[in-house]
């Protein structure tokens, strides 16, 4: 890493050296009169930004180097490494330039380096968790910091009185209190850097981290008050000044929070109107947050508090208003800036420590401070926790307290504050600087290094990441409402009551005002989780590339795995028959020519690569540009995503079979029929025949084949319940296509069951005529469908069919291709299912049968008397993904009858 | 007045098993509240009394929670029943959750009983299962009005499927508890002042 850094250092150093020699300035006396130079070296014009960029580059490269070794970063926190790197770099700079350069300037730190970190932490703060623990956080931040400051300052003063601090440290009680105030505050940057790698449980993290953020107000006040007292001289401080000091605590903290909230409001309101200028949305977030910081700083309020509140307050509305892409942009920019600032801070801290001209060493003071801050921190935490536990629902146990005490890291804020001290007013400044550096280094390096093993050793509850489930989200909301209601009943207006109140107010007024109407409409947490789950399913599907053809890969990532045997729910059935379908596919894959396989692969490529991006794009746009049509489409897409995973196997199977040029025509016909059927059954089930639209799309050109598939998918998904019947019929007829040989078709009451003749499609598709495949298909499907929904006649025909299809001798050759486990799952069902008399258990509602009949009669494109279209349709059941799934969906439906 | 004070004293004399989970101080507080809610000083609460609480009217689950005070179709609830329902929300004593006396019934504020309380808010027909329809009804209450009926249905479907393990298309209590096993129910379903 050094080798990487050295050449980079060369430039700034050369620049710094050049700066020292005025004779090199262009246009200086002695130079020849300026002529048109071919090449001019203008270092000074770019020096400042160049240096900044270089330092950031150095820091980033260092980060890359650190992370090359996973071992190192897992043991040593990055902040430690950066500080050490800073020390080395500082040493080199010192050795080369003979003076310390590039130190951590308080101005730079407070104006440029700190805001991104605080904004990042405020914006991404888990607000629910934060407010749930607000009481504890505030206590630790206010009382804890005050306690630390006063006890440390007083104890150091006592140490001096006891003569343990060298007399050359000229400081009175006020100086020590000032020092105590700046050294007492837990530093957000350091805490964040260390705790992010430790992964303690959320409550513990939010308490320590929240404290480090909110204590800024106290630190600022204490520091300013003490500083002004020191400058006034202790003799001139009057009682009113103390009162003013206390009052300023409230002014600074509440004022800072108010500034932050005002800017959060402005920010949310502004993003409401950025519909046509999406591109500036991320910028707005940063600008207004930074404006909040600067405003608070200007009014000498707590700037950290302001930015924290701004981020915390605006997030909900901003996230709802800005586009999906902007959200990503905001997230990454914020993280990048914060990480960059953090890196630079730690590195500069290391560099600054090298400059020995700034500090003076006193062992008594340094050791005393180290001991006191550790001791009083621990003592303060224990005392406060004891008090807090009287009021807390979930008490903080001893282990938590240990981690909290030990996690009180000091950092750059203390350093910047101590640098800001005025040497003329605080004669012991140099000693304080040295002590602060030691304290910061000790806490960041020693404590930072040891806190991870400590947490492991104490077995602190770690944070466990589990994916959100709909159930959890829903139940959590239920619990909130229950608790609010119970508090109402009990008549105690506690936390839940006020939170409920706030949520109602927010829903009624604030969200209405601050959220775009379109965003407000789709803003619901449960819906959000649902939406995200769907997207994740879709993405994981895309990630798999649709190449997962094995039945083992068919688990939904967002659903818990289930092993129970009695699976009858929709999903499980889908999955089950999915494996059946895969089985089918495998047979085909082994039998088919290489050409077909190629087709299949190509289709998967297209399927995985082509239309997914399109849809993702559509989503991001549609999310907010919502016309009526778009809304509907969006809904459809969500459904598609939801079902995508479940239909996956079917789709792949069918595509594999059918990916030839002649398909679109047939498919469309089939789809038409399907949608007709959907419409009809829809009405029987009291549902509006919404799917007429698909019919139309079905008639459109063949170019949008993919899309059509999607739509037919979605229509099926939505009509899940209704569709079963149609596809029963179809599945049966498909079965009967085989069964015609047995001559039992007359029995079938359905008008669609007509002896079919080979269609053109069948001729075109070599495997259509292959008896072996069909036999397999029939056997697997019939076993599923027959027992459930068959009518008497159908049943008879099926049984006769069975006699045709079931003789194992004909199928044996093909069956050998099947994986043994699928055989095992399929075979046992047949003997069990078939004997059961469907006559008794499943009476087919006559109205449905009628509906089925009228449906097929009414379909204009497919006159039922003709065999050809029927065959086409049947082909289609094999081919199109839409028609593929019905049997199982219907099966489930049948089970419910 | 005398009746009231006796009513107040009565719960104190009750054996602990009747009020296993509510402390003395909470009982007094609850009884004050009970009397305040009891509009006609009739010694029991009816639905109307609870419906008068303003914030309950806007609570989406308000009606169901009121119903849970009146089990088995009764129309009044005395103080004992009142306290019994609220005892579900008493915080669990530190870590001693699973160690109650096996002879005594499981305390009302145990994790399972808390869950059971929530469960019966879903399970309207009391068949021990949250059907898809019941889930849909709850979702309709909870999800904002902006979501269409079909979206709601698909959410309900997915929610049921997510939790449904035995594949009967409904969520049984065990399945319900299982979906929440990672959640700190003891904490989420407790109110501190009922300690």
Set down the secondary structure blueprint:
The complex is a heterodimer of chains A (897) and B (195).
Chain A (H helix, E strand, L loop, with lengths): L1 H19 L22 H26 L1 H6 L2 H20 L8 H18 L3 H6 L1 H28 L11 H12 L3 H11 L3 H31 L6 H34 L8 H18 L4 H19 L2 H31 L8 H29 L6 H9 L5 H8 L9 H30 L11 H21 L4 H20 L2 H5 L3 H20 L25 H22 L2 H16 L1 H12 L5 H31 L4 H22 L7 H8 L5 H14 L1 H20 L20 H5 L1 H4 L1 H19 L2 H14 L2 H8 L4 H7 L2 H5 L4 H4 L4 H13 L8 H13 L1 H4 L1 H11 L1
Helix pairs in contact in A: 1-2, 1-4, 2-4, 2-14, 4-14, 5-12, 5-13, 5-14, 5-17, 7-8, 7-10, 7-15, 8-10, 8-17, 9-10, 9-18, 10-11, 10-13, 11-12, 11-13, 12-13, 12-14, 15-16, 15-18, 17-18, 19-20, 22-26, 23-26, 23-33, 23-42, 24-26, 26-29, 27-28, 27-29, 27-30, 27-39, 27-40, 30-33, 30-34, 30-40, ...
Chain B lengths: L1 H12 L10 H14 L7 E2 H5 L2 H5 L3 H8 L6 E2 L1 H8 L24 H12 L6 E3 H11 L6 H15 L6 E3 H7 L5 H4 L7
Antiparallel strand pairs in B: 1-2, 3-4
Helix pairs in contact in B: 1-2, 8-9
Subcellular location (chain B): Cell membrane; Cytoplasm; Nucleus
Protein name (chain B): Calcineurin like EF-hand protein 2
InterPro entries (chain B): Calcineurin_B_homologous, EF-hand-dom_pair, EF_Hand_1_Ca_BS, EF_hand_dom
């Amino acid at each position: 890493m050094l080798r990487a850094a050295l050449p980079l250092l060369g430039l700034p150093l050369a620049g710094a050296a050049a700066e020292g020699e005025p004779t090199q300035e262009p246009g200086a006396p002695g130079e020849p009169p300026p002529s048109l130079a071919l090449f001019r070296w203008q270092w000074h014009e770019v020096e400042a930004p160049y240096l900044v960029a270089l330092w950031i580059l150095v820091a980033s490269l260092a980060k890359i180097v650190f992370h090359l070794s996973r071992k190192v970063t897992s043991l040593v926190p990055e902040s430690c490494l950066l500080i050490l790197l800073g020390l080395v770099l500082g040493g080199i700079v010192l050795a080369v330039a003979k003076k310390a350069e590039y130190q951590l300037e308080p101005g730079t730190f407070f104006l440029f380096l700190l805001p991104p970190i605080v904004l990042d932490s405020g914006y991404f703060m888990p607000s629910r968790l934060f407010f749930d623990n607000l009481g504890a956080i505030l206590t630790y931040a206010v009382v804890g910091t005050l306690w630390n400051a006063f006890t440390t300052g007083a104890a150091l003063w006592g140490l001096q009185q006891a003569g343990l601090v060298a007399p050359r440290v000229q400081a009175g009680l006020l100086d020590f209190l000032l020092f105590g105030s700046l050294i007492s505050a837990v530093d957000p940057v350091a805490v964040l850097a260390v705790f992010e790698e430790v992964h303690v449980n959320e409550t513990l993290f939010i308490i320590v981290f929240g404290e480090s953020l909110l204590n800024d107000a106290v630190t600022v006040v204490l520091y300013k008050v003490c500083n002004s007292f020191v400058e006034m001289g202790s003799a001139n401080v009057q009682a009113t000044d103390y009162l003013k000091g206390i009052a300023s605590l409230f002014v600074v903290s509440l004022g800072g929070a108010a500034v932050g909230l005002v800017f959060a409001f402005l920010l949310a309101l502004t993003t409401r109107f950025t519909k046509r200028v999406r591109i500036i949305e991320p910028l707005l977030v940063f600008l207004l947050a930074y404006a909040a910081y600067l405003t608070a700083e200007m009014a000498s309020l707590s700037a950290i508090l302001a930015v924290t509140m701004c981020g915390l307050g605006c997030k909900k509305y901003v996230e709802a208003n800005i586009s999906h892409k902007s959200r990503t942009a905001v997230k990454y920019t914020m993280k990048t800036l914060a990480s960059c600032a953090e890196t630079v801070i730690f590195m500069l801290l290391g560099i600054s420590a090298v400059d020995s001209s700034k500090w003076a060493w006193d062992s008594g003071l340094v050791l005393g401070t180290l001991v006191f801050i550790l001791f009083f921190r621990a003592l303060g935490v224990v005392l406060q926790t004891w008090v807090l536990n009287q009021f807390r629902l979930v008490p903080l146990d001893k282990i938590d307290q240990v981690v909290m005490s030990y996690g009180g890291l000091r950092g750059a804020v203390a350093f910047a504050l101590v640098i800001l001290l005025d040497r003329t007013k605080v004669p012991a400044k140099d000693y304080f600087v040295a002590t602060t550096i030691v304290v910061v280094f000790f806490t960041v390096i020693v404590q930072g290094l040891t806190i991870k093993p400590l947490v492991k050793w104490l077995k602190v509850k770690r944070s466990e990441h589990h994916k959100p489930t709909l159930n959890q989200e829903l139940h959590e909301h239920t619990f909130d409402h229950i608790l609010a209601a119970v508090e109402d009943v009990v008549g105690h207006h506690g936390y839940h009551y006020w939170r409920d109140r706030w949520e109602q107010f927010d829903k009624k007024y604030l969200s209405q005002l601050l959220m775009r109407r379109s965003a407000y409409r789709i803003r619901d947490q449960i819906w959000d989780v649902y939406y995200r789950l769907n997207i994740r399913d879709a993405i994981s599907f895309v990630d798999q590339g649709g190449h997962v053809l094995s039945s083992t890969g068919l688990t939904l990532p967002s659903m818990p795995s289930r092993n129970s045997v009695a699976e009858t729910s929709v999903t499980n059935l889908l999955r089950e028959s999915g494996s059946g379908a895969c089985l089918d596919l495998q047979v085909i894959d082994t039998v088919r020519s290489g050409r077909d396989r190629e087709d299949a692969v190509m289709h998967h490529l297209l399927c995985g690569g082509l239309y997914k991006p399109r849809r993702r794009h559509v989503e991001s746009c549609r999310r907010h540009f919502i016309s009526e049509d778009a809304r509907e489409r969006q809904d459809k897409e969500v459904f598609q995503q939801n079902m995508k995973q479940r239909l996956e196997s079917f789709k792949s199977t069918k595509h594999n079979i059918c990916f030839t040029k002649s398909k679109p025509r047939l498919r469309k016909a089939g789809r038409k029929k399907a949608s007709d059927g959907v419409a009809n059954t829809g009405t029987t089930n009291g549902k509006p025949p919404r799917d007429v639209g698909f019919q139309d799309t079905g008639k459109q050109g063949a170019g949008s084949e993919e899309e059509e598939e999607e739509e037919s998918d979605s229509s099926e998904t939505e009509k899940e319940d209704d569709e079963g019947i149609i596809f029963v019929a179809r599945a049966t007829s498909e079965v009967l296509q085989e069964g015609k040989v047995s001559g039992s078709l007359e029995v079938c009451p359905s008008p669609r069951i007509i002896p079919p003749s080979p269609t053109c499609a069948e001729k075109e598709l070599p495997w259509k005529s292959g008896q072996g495949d069909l036999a397999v298909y029939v056997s697997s499907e019939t076993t599923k469908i027959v027992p459930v929904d068959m009518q008497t006649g159908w049943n008879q025909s099926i049984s006769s069919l069975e006699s045709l299809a079931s003789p194992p001798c004909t199928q044996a050759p093909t069956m050998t291709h099947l994986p043994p486990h699928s055989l095992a799952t399929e075979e046992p069902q047949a003997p069990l299912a078939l004997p059961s008399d469907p006559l008794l258990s499943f009476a087919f509602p006559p109205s449905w049968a009628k509906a089925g009949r009228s449906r097929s009669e009414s379909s204009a494109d497919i006159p039922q008397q003709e065999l050809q279209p029927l065959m086409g349709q049947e082909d289609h059941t094999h081919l199109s993904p839409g028609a593929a799934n019905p049997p199982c969906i219907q099966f489930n439906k049948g089970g419910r009858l | 007045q005398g009746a009231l004070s006796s009513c107040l004293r009565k719960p104190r004399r009750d054996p602990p098993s009747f009020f296993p989970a509510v402390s003395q101080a909470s009982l007094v507080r609850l009884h004050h509240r009970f009397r305040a809610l009891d509009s006609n000083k009739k010694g029991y609460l009816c639905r109307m009394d609870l419906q008068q609480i303003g914030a309950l009217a806007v609570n989406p689950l308000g009606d169901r929670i009121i119903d849970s005070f009146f089990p088995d179709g009764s129309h009044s609830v005395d103080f004992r029943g009142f306290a019994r329902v609220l005892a579900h929300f008493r915080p669990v004593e530190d870590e001693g959750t699973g160690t109650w006396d096996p002879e005594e019934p499981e305390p009302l504020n145990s994790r399972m009983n808390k869950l059971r309380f929530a469960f019966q808010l879903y399970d309207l027909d009391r068949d021990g299962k949250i059907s898809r329809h019941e889930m849909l009804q709850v979702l309709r209450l909870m999800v904002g009005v902006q979501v269409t009926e079909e979206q709601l249905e698909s959410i309900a479907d997915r929610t049921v499927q997510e939790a449904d393990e035995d594949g009967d298309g409904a969520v049984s209590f065990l399945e319900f508890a299982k979906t929440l096993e990672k959640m700190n129910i003891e904490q989420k379903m407790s109110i501190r002042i009922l300690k």
